[in-house]
Specification:
The complex is a heterodimer of chains A (682) and B (290). With 682 residues, chain A is of the alpha+beta class. Chain A has three domains: 194 residues, Alpha-Beta Complex (Aldehyde Oxidoreductase, domain 3); 293 residues, Aldehyde oxidase/xanthine dehydrogenase, molybdopterin binding domain (Aldehyde Oxidoreductase, domain 4, 2-Layer Sandwich), CATH 3.30.365.10; 100 residues, Aldehyde oxidase/xanthine dehydrogenase, molybdopterin binding domain (Aldehyde Oxidoreductase, domain 4). Chain A contains 18 helices and 26 strands. In chain A, the strands form six sheets. Chain A has a seven-stranded mixed sheet. Chain A has a six-stranded mixed sheet with strand order 7-15-14-13-8-26. Chain A has a four-stranded mixed sheet with strand order 18-23-24-25, with helices on both faces. In chain A, a hairpin with a 2-residue loop joins β9 and β10. The longest helix of chain A is centred in the last third of the chain and has 24 residues. Chain A is globular. Chain A starts with 15 loop residues before the first helix and ends with a helix. Chain B has three domains: 47 residues, Uridine Diphospho-n-acetylenolpyruvylglucosamine Reductase, domain 2, CATH 3.30.43; 111 residues, 2-Layer Sandwich (Uridine Diphospho-n-acetylenolpyruvylglucosamine Reductase, domain 3); 110 residues, CO dehydrogenase flavoprotein, C-terminal domain (Enolase-like, domain 1, 2-Layer Sandwich). In chain B, α11 packs antiparallel against α12. The termini of chain B are far apart. Classes of the chains: A alpha+beta (682), B alpha+beta (290). Chains A and B meet through α2 of A and α12 of B. The structure holds flavin-adenine dinucleotide (FAD). Flavin-adenine dinucleotide binds next to β2, α6, α7 and β10 of chain B.
């Protein structure tokens, strides 16, 4: 039973404090005697370490990183990332050594005390180089980290229309406002960690495994977390190093990432190429699809490169009723920071590949893209040959076309794009919640941790609905592994679905308990007794939802794109809170625009990151965004509280609609994100 | 993102600043607005033991016309240029460049002297100084000397300032009656440096031919450059579309842009060609208005 200090308002979720500037982030944690850690990083994409002196390094901590969190995949032993580079460095920004001092200035000064000699080697930078070069890791036969196949192979039918294209989403940084960070403090045999994270249990399990500690000797607490977008779902070398150092020195250790470190060393998303081939009848009905995808996994399997391949493959027929499909794919090792999940995590890539092909087919057929899509949708639920179960797409899409006023827009402007997608939320393996009723109040702890989404809003609403307890009496606390036995994390459009279901399940339990004791339910009776309930609600079933986007653009004479309209029509299930739903959509649409027109991590031939400042990496600015037009369909899910997934919808639907709008306005076939001004002018 | 340690001085008199500078020599660095220097210190790309903050030095933040020149103190902030009525009215080329520099936060602190002394080929004011044929007044222990804007920046981030010297004033010739200028900058996004930018300053003769042309280029070579050949080509001519187009072609043929995330060298040439043509036409039109 956790000690609850009801007056400790600092610990609770209440979004208003972010507006008031009273949030409590990792960097706000100050402990007497705390050391500050600075990491010495590899300046080379690939090199042999000839000698290394000073700091803490692989000779002190030789462990490899445990794979935990969203998209965790094991891969071959020789491709697992060591905590510290050992023998070789394999990406610019890879931790080589770490130094510690009482303040940040001194800590950075100490970097000069570490001496490293490198022998630079020719790096493998691109997907093509990975395919043609000898393996970057000893002990591997090639640079193929993993391979996966979906669907049944079929011989090419003699279709009247066969279209092929190669499409690509460049890597992008997740770039949350708050970069990564943690404080580790080893005290009384227990490693206490405060982290900026989406998933306290992933961090706990990962640290326990990496450092060889028993799980009950590691406690991870979430600090306020200023965004993550997928990048804070697991652990990173720095977390293990800071923890190790706090054990070694017997002092708390803080590490806060700089923006430059974020760009070089935090797992970026995307970096996927798809070769597509579709077979169609004369009328535009697609009879088959073949695909081949290549994921730029980066230097180690500890990212989500391995997981990405089958996941992307499974969604590559999109929302369409394509009877035959076969996809092969590889995750490839390159001398770049390991790839990881970024809002959408495979969904936007898969959707990009199929949607670009539908637009190509429309152009080939001289048909309207909406009509080609309609022709390829089913009136009934459809099980795709790649293993995806979707609801009846056509009725939703017909409504979407009307709600977005697509036909009118298409007549008015040249640069108009329409997209359609199915969102597959990441419900695996379920989620935990704990609710404690004490002193006439309710406290809630979650396994999946809000990093800016504001989970507390829908939780309070559901508790109010289920238990008639007023919102002021409900406090949602930040994640703490000592309070919830287990947990997954907040990602994959899952929180409203899974946490919502867990909360409702607990509420039902409590109601039954109260009814048993008092004969009937009242909130007064509930609050008059102490209760403590924990559930880990498993929802393995598929709970997909549809969405459509419309974008219109104008192109300036230097190829700069002005987004005029960016509108959405999404099925969110029951909107638990309308403002929060809109907030999710607006933010995600900004990121969708960012990916399409502004953002990218670019590397030089020798593997140096060229885009090493936030302005170079290109986050969208206020002036780049139009007024968003959002319409919401509320088709309740089969869950008691009716929610569906939402968070990733805009990053799936916006890039595909927007790139089509740009394609129409420029008259040039577009195959990759980001679209650069120079792609658009003669 | 934390600088190595340094000793900090904030003199209020030029004499003091010069003394400190000569005392500490190479280990010292002048700081004005800090908008370019501080990022370098924080990233530890640069480290100095002594930082001499000249932003409090008296008498270096005035904008006024004296004799044949508009005198701009090196410590004048870019924001002051932006808001100054005289600059707005009479020095459009300068005003247009100023308002397009970075964002208001940077403009409020960044200085004219710093913008030029930093030697960044993407900074906007050097090209304006080149196009207007400005002179720079450099102050040292031995006194003052005047240099042409052209010879001030010698390479990327390198100037002809010698040890112990400070840029004191920028002297812009007061525009003749029949003259026109403009600054056209193409950037990727708000607040950004340019993909390419062009400063054009034209003085017209009675018959509307070009008596004297000044063309300065930003972001298309290792240093801000004068488009010499194009200047000579348009001098003595009236500006028609065909003349402007040919001048732009000459400008592009001489530019040496490099490929980076602002675009490929090829793209930058295209942008440069279009804005150069436009800038020549615009400056000419402005010169026609008496
Ligand atoms: C986000 C951002 C965007 C920017 N975008 C632009 C842009 O679009 N266009 C543009 O032109 N600039 C841009 N800048 C640069 C900005 O204009 C700087 O202010 C300017 O380059 C330097 O001026 P400062 O007064 O801040 O100089 P400081 O940073 O203080 O100094 C810069 C250099 O000049 C030297 N120096 C300064 N003053 C003198 C002097 N009087 N005599 C001798 N040496 C001196 C210093 O020693 C130092 O080496 C941008 C800066 C930032 C941070």
């Amino acid at each position: 039973m956790p000690t609850i200090n009801w007056n400790d308002r600092e610990l609770e979720y209440d979004s208003s404090r972010f507006v008031k500037g009273t949030g409590h982030f990792v960097d706000d944690i100050k402990i007497q005697g705390m050391l500050f850690m600075t990491v010495l990083r590899s300046p080379y994409a690939r090199a042999r370490i000839i000698s290394l002196k000073g700091g803490i390094s692989s000779k002190d901590l030789g462990a490899k990183i445990a794979s935990v969190g969203e998209g965790a995949s094991e891969g071959e032993a020789s491709s697992v990332e060591p905590i510290f580079a050992s023998g070789f460095v394999n990406y610019v920004g890879q931790p080589v050594a770490a130094v510690f001092a009482e303040d940040r200035y001194k800590s950075e000064d100490l970097l000069d005390s570490v001496e490293v000699d490198y022998e630079p080697l020719k790096p493998v930078v691109t997907i093509d180089e990975a395919l043609s070069s000898p393996p970057i890791h000893k002990g591997m036969k090639s640079n193929i980290l993993s391979e996966a196949v979906k669907g049944q192979d079929f011989s090419d039918p003699s279709s009247p229309i066969v279209l092929e294209d190669t499409l690509e989403n460049n890597r992008i940084s997740t770039n949350p406002i708050e970069p990564r960070g943690l404080v580790a403090s080893f005290e009384g045999g227990v490693l206490n960690v405060w982290a900026s994270t989406q998933a306290v249990h992933s961090v706990k399990n990962g640290l326990a495994e990496t450092l060889g500690l028993s799980k009950d000797k590691v406690r991870v607490m979430q600090a306020d977390t200023g965004g993550a977008f997928g990048s804070k779902g697991g652990i990173y070398p720095e977390y293990a190093i800071a923890s190790f150092a706090s054990m070694k020195y017997g002092k708390p250790v803080k590490w806060i990432e700089t923006r430059r470190e974020h760009l070089t060393s935090t797992n970026p998303g995307r970096g996927v190429r798809g070769k597509m081939k579709i077979f169609s009848e004369k009328n535009g009905k697609i009879t088959g699809m073949k695909g081949e995808i290549m994921v730029d996994a980066g230097a180690y399997g500890s990212g989500s490169g391995g997981f990405s391949v089958p996941f992307i493959e499974s969604m590559m027929t999109g929302a369409y009723a394509i009877e035959k499909a076969f996809v092969t794919g590889k995750a490839l090792l390159t001398n770049k920071v390991p790839q990881g999940p970024y809002r959408g995590a495979g969904r936007p890539e898969a959707s990009f590949f199929i949607e670009r092909m539908l637009d190509l087919l429309a152009d080939e057929m001289k048909m309207d893209p909406a009509d080609v899509r309609l022709l390829n949708m089913s009136d009934k639920p459809f099980n795709s040959p790649l293993g995806m179960k979707i609801d009846a797409a056509r009725p939703f899409f017909e409504t979407a076309v009307r709600e977005l006023e697509y036909r009118r827009e298409a007549k008015l402007a040249k640069g108009v794009g329409l997209s359609f997608f199915v969102l597959v939320p990441g419900t695996y393996t379920g989620e935990s919640a704990r609710m404690i009723v004490k002193d006439g109040k309710i406290g809630v702890w979650l396994g999946g941790n809000s990093h800016g989404q504001g989970h507390e809003t829908f939780i309070r609403k559901l508790i109010n609905e289920e238990l008639d307890v007023s919102k002021e009496l409900v406090t949602v606390y930040r994640g703490d592994t000592s309070v919830t036995k287990d947990g997954e994390g907040a990602w994959g459009s899952r929180s409203a679905i899974l946490i919502g279901a867990a909360i409702v399940a607990i509420c039902k339990k409590l109601r039954t308990e109260v009814e048993k004791e008092f004969g009937s339910y009242s909130s007064e009776s509930l609050l008059s007794r102490d209760h403590d309930e924990y559930v880990f609600d498993e929802k393995p079933f598929s709970l997909t939802s549809f969405g459509a986007n419309l974008a219109t653009v104008e192109i300036g004479r230097f190829g700069n794109v002005r987004v005029k309209k960016c509108n959405a029509y999404y099925d969110v299930g029951r909107a638990l809170n309308r403002e929060m739903v809109l907030g999710q959509i607006h933010g995600g649409m900004a990121q969708g625009i960012g990916q399409t027109l502004h953002e990218g991590l670019f590397y030089s031939e020798d593997g140096q990151l060229i885009t090493s400042s936030i302005s170079d990496a290109g986050v969208p600015l206020a002036e780049d965004l139009p007024n968003f037009g959002v319409k919401i369909a509320e088709n309740r899910s089969s869950l008691p509280h009716g929610a569906k997934g939402l968070g990733e919808a805009p990053t799936i639907g916006v890039p595909t609609a927007l790139i089509r709008a740009v394609e129409k306005a420029s008259g040039k076939r577009l195959r990759k994100t980001p679209v650069m001004p120079e792609d658009l002018i003669a | 993102m934390h600088p190595s340690s340094f000793e900090y001085f904030a003199p209020t008199k030029m004499k003091e600043a010069l003394e400190l500078l000569s005392k500490y020599g190479e280990e010292a660095k002048i700081m004005a607005g800090g908008q370019s220097l501080i990022p370098l210190l924080k990233l530890r790309i640069a480290a100095y033991s002594y930082i001499i903050d000249i932003s409090r030095v008296e008498g270096l933040n005035k904008i006024r016309e004296t004799g044949d020149f508009l005198e701009i103190g090196a410590l004048t902030t870019v924001n002051e240029l932006e808001e100054n009525e005289l600059v707005k009215e009479k020095y459009r080329i300068l005003h247009e460049a100023a308002v397009q520099i970075a964002d208001p936060l940077v403009r409020n602190r960044g200085t004219v002297g710093g913008n030029i002394s930093h030697g960044d080929p993407s900074n906007d004011l050097p090209a304006v100084a080149i196009a207007t044929k400005a002179k720079l007044e450099i102050v040292g222990k031995k006194g003052k000397r005047l240099v042409d804007a052209d010879s001030f920046i010698t390479d990327s981030f390198t100037t002809s300032l010698e040890e112990g010297e400070i840029l004191g004033k920028i002297l812009l010739p007061i525009p003749k009656v029949s003259s026109g200028g403009c600054y056209i900058k193409q950037k990727k996004s708000a607040g950004d440096f340019s993909v390419a930018a062009v400063a054009v300053n034209l003085v017209l003769a009675e018959d509307e031919t070009i008596k004297s042309a000044g063309i300065g280029l930003t972001s298309v070579a290792p240093k801000p450059t004068r488009a010499n050949k194009a200047e000579r080509y348009i001098e003595g001519k009236k500006i028609y579309d065909s003349v402007a187009r040919e001048a732009a072609r000459i400008i592009v043929s001489e530019a040496e842009p490099s490929t980076d995330f602002y675009g490929s060298a090829d793209y930058k040439r295209k942008v440069l060609g279009r804005i150069a043509e436009e800038a020549i036409n615009l400056a000419f039109e402005r010169g026609l208005v008496r």
